[in-house]
């Protein structure tokens, strides 16, 4: 397997007037330099070199995998704002010097180039204007049905590439950038092999669990659909789609590379990723639960047909995804991008309950997989969000483990403990307005008190849903915000992977009719991702109370996760007569339509049957002295409230309060208005669906 020199990138990350960070992955080590340019379009397009210096940090994560974070600093004056800037990178070793042109990335005749229209270089701008456009989305699974909405964001940028007043300035990816648990059958073995090629060796998994040296596990772990039992019973994960779950760090790295860029897909073709099912089956590459013998003949045939149907559908969807991957790659190269994890970046149900967390920690294999997932998140996502968060000690401990991948000794122990205990994954993006990204996975609070539940005549005590951020976490977030340049009475963006305000209809059905089924032994907690802020009153109220302490003039909450898009407006009045305006915008999924099958049918019926009522009516509620959130009739709030709230679900131009197609949000914020749009891609171009424009109240 001959790896290309450039594995992924460039991806432009943290940008402000003091520095620009660019992420790059290569299969060889290089000394790297960079130049920044100012574009002048009058009277003709020209470039002017800016005086800068370059600092590069490189993490050698494996034999053939080097991750570079390139930071460009101005030498004298701050970097220009609200003006189009371009960049080039120069990669040198003792044999040659390459730049982005050397890889064909600046050739406008090359369909995989990363430049727009007549621009000679990839470009971006640093927004300080009161008008700003921000792309935001989540949930991007390569083998999902439908087109990848990230392609529509690339088209939107291309349409306005020369006009910074209309061009999106930033891209927020809000979770599930990869699906570590849900790996498509046709791609799985290539990922296993590519991971080993990148790192240069396999991890000592049998040293973590001796059963992995025994059959059938020693063989099945390398086969398509052969890991479900291992993941559920050895690692103690609860995902129902873990048949090809990522385990080794190299596998996580391979998945990121294949999701970010098209470079490795030609290699994937050569390695048989797009072979038909019959060829893969004939090669013996598929694991079967039932052996092919006379005792299980009918069961084997049924399983064979299930494998064939799933494989064929996933193969078609993968082909569609990779055909447009160059668009996503171009967008990432031209738009400052900030990323936060959700569960699938590590595994489905990650830290869902305290029992889940304890069970996985007490499993050597489970603890190891989560550590690898977090290390991959940091390497491919977290590092570029705000590089100065991560100390030299942090990076050294990760590199020490990567040097030999031994699960014995101090380096491995420090690697695991560092990643499980790290509490600074949240960050602030230097956008206008400022954006604080919440970590709703590792800052959770778990309430040990039981919750009474009734199903028919059966009355039981049940576990409570977690607080998505505990009190200690909120204090850390507040400290981070206070140390930033943001100040009270300014607009504030909060990125919460899970919406603070979902569609109450869906959440209520889950809460009132589905969630109580846990007392019957049905694991609905893990089956349905029962993790909305609403499901823990203390967590929801903490969110509101901390917002009141921060006192933003207007609060924009951007979210994903739930596989639908919506816009919600809330006005909260506190007993001291101060007010808080919250606008919740949700965009999901970019590429993972999931409202299908019986569950999707039922949920769509619930939404559509009640949507008309929600569009015509406001919702009123208050928090009483006892801390209970109570629904009200209009103007019926009692006098002893802590705060009262009016909620309105906004409609699209088509009259719907939700959109369930693959989409990515485009939020346009101006001084006194805000407009939320959904962008979609249908193979030939971009479509838009607009929500009602909102006039902001006086600050």
From TrEMBL:
Q: Which domain of life is it from?
A: Bacteria
Gene3D superfamilies (UniProt xref): PhoD-like phosphatase
InterPro entries recorded for this chain?
Metallo-depent_PP-like (IPR029052), PhoD-like_sf (IPR038607)
Record protein name field: PhoD-like phosphatase metallophosphatase domain-containing protein
Q: Which organism is it from?
A: Aquibacillus rhizosphaerae
Phylogenetic placement of the source organism:
Bacteria, Bacillati, Bacillota, Bacilli, Bacillales
């Amino acid at each position: 397997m001959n790896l290309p020199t450039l594995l992924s990138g460039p991806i432009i990350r943290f940008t402000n007037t003091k520095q620009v960070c660019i992420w790059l992955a290569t299969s060889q080590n290089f000394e790297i330099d960079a130049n920044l340019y100012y574009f002048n379009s009058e009277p003709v397009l020209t470039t002017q070199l800016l005086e800068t210096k370059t600092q590069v940090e490189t993490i050698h994560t494996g034999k053939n995998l080097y991750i570079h974070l390139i930071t460009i600093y101005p030498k004298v004056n701050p970097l220009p704002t609200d003006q189009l800037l371009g960049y080039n990178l120069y990669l040198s070793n003792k044999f040659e010097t390459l730049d982005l042109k050397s890889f064909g990335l600046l050739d406008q005749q090359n369909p995989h180039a990363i430049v727009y229209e007549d621009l000679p270089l990839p470009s971006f701008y640093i927004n300080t204007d009161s008008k700003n456009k921000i792309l935001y989305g989540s949930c991007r699974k390569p083998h999902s049905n439908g087109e990848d909405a990230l392609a529509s964001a690339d088209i939107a940028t291309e349409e306005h590439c020369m006009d910074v007043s209309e061009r999106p300035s930033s891209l927020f990816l809000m979770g599930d950038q990869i699906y570590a648990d849900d790996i498509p059958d046709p791609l799985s073995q290539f990922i296993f092999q590519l991971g080993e090629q990148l790192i240069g060796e396999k991890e000592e998994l049998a040293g973590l669990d001796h059963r992995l040296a025994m059959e059938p596990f020693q063989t099945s772990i390398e086969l398509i659909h052969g890991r479900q039992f291992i993941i559920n019973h050895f690692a103690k994960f609860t995902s129902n789609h873990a048949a090809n779950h990522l385990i080794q760090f190299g596998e996580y790295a391979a998945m990121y590379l294949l999701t970010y860029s098209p470079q490795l897909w030609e290699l994937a073709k050569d390695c048989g990723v797009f072979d038909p099912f019959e060829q893969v089956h004939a090669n013996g590459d598929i694991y079967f639960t039932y052996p092919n013998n006379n005792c299980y003949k009918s069961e084997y045939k049924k399983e064979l047909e299930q494998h064939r149907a799933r494989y064929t559908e996933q193969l078609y969807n993968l082909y569609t995804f990779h055909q447009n991957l160059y668009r996503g790659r171009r967008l990432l190269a031209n738009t400052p991008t900030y990323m936060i994890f959700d569960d699938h970046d590590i595994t489905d149900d990650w830290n869902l309950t305290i029992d889940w967390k304890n069970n996985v920690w007490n499993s050597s294999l489970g603890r190891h997989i989560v550590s690898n997932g977090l290390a991959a998140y940091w390497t491919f996502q977290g590092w570029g969000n705000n590089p100065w968060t991560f100390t030299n000690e942090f990076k050294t401990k990760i590199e020490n483990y990567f040097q030999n991948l031994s699960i014995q000794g101090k380096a491995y122990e420090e690697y695991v403990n560092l990643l499980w205990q790290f509490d600074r994954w949240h960050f602030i993006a230097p956008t206008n307005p400022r954006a604080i990204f919440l970590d709703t996975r590792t800052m959770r609070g778990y309430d040990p008190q039981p919750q009474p539940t009734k199903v028919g005549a059966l009355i039981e005590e049940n576990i409570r849903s977690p607080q998505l951020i505990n009190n200690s976490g909120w204090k850390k977030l507040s400290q981070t915000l206070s140390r930033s340049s943001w100040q009270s009475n300014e607009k504030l963006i909060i990125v919460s992977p899970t919406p603070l305000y979902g569609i109450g209809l869906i959440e209520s059905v889950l809460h009132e009719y589905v969630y109580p089924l846990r007392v019957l032994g049905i694991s609905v907690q893990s089956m349905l991702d029962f993790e909305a802020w609403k499901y823990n009153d203390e967590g929801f109220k903490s969110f509101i109370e901390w917002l009141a302490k921060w006192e933003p003039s207007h609060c924009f909450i951007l979210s994903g996760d739930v596989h639908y898009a919506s816009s919600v407006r809330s006005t909260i009045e506190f007993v001291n007569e101060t007010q808080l305006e919250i606008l919740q915008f949700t965009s999901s999924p970019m590429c993972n339509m999931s409202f299908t099958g019986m569950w999707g049918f039922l949920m769509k019926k619930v939404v559509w049957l009640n949507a008309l009522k929600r569009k015509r009516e406001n919702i009123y509620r208050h928090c009483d002295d006892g801390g209970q959130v109570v629904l009200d009739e209009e103007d019926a709030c009692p006098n002893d409230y802590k705060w009262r709230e009016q909620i309105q679900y906004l409609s699209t131009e088509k009259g719907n309060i939700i959109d369930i197609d693959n989409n990515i949000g485009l939020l346009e914020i101006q001084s006194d208005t805000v407009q939320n749009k959904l962008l979609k891609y249908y193979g030939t171009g971009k479509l838009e669906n607009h929500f009602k424009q909102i006039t902001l109240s006086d600050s």
